């Protein structure tokens, strides 16, 4: 457990993701400064964090060993970027997904930061080589991509710029572990990083199966939520191969040809438009109408499930 004596973490952009990072860092005992271009946004975020933390505490789901009040006392708002940067050991950028905006903010930060602070972006899909090009402090820059909702899904993808110092990745990896997240090192930048490449591969085949009339949209989702997804919540696809035969070599020997045969039948990249999108949309709306109330209720249900799953995972003796 870190103590509040550690240099503060600065969150730049206090929207959905900035707020989650603030809660996570505070749960690890770090002081957090929240900066945003909109003063009102900072005020709203601080209020929402207070509400969220109290509810989490009441339900026994608050992360870390500090009470909600102790964690709340670690978080403060700041509307002056120069002051906000002072003493920070880690800066987590969380502004909207717009390359030019992010580049502008990194250029601004590059001028005022020292040589010891880490400059980290939450971007979902902008490449480090584009985000950090030309920065004086490029060695201190990397992407730390969280998964929504970060408070309940611990994965963080760490993606370096080609000139990022290995120590920057190591320090960020250790920091993420300290706040209870599960960092992975993406060794070279690639479009979509790893999580979204896997996700898009699944979405793509799901779409083709529905488009070709092989399975209904709701049954397709069941294949994941009551089948593959259950297994993958505890064990990745490679380890699953390993244990589903007498080791990986045996699995590839037994099933390699079948996998290749099936993979050769995969179709082209779907258009995600036209009749299929209408069909999938209608099917989804039967269960969850696409209005804010229903969508929000469904998201909350998912968060409750993720909280319980996280508890179960932490109780399992061997991970
Ligand atoms: P958001 O729109 O909820 O929040 C963005 C915040 O940045 C707002 O509070 C806005 O006032 C502030 N902002 C805008 N310009 C600013 C500036 N010049 N200086 C300081 N603050 C500024 O966005 P969200 O969803 O939190 O996304 C932030 C980043 O996290 C994006 O890069 C996104 O791709 C990434 N991300 C988002 C996920 C999601 O599911 N929402 C998941 C993983 C990553």
From TrEMBL:
The keyword RNA-binding does not apply. Residues 9-189 form the 3-hydroxyacyl-CoA dehydrogenase NAD binding domain. Keywords: Cytoplasm, NAD, Oxidoreductase, Phosphoprotein. Its EC number is 1.1.1.45. Residues 192-279 form the 3-hydroxyacyl-CoA dehydrogenase C-terminal domain. One of its GO terms (molecular function) is NAD+ binding. GO terms for biological process: fatty acid metabolic process. The record marks 145 as: Important for catalytic activity. It is found in: Cytoplasm. GO terms for cellular component: cytoplasm. Homodimer. Belongs to the 3-hydroxyacyl-CoA dehydrogenase family. This is L-gulonate 3-dehydrogenase.
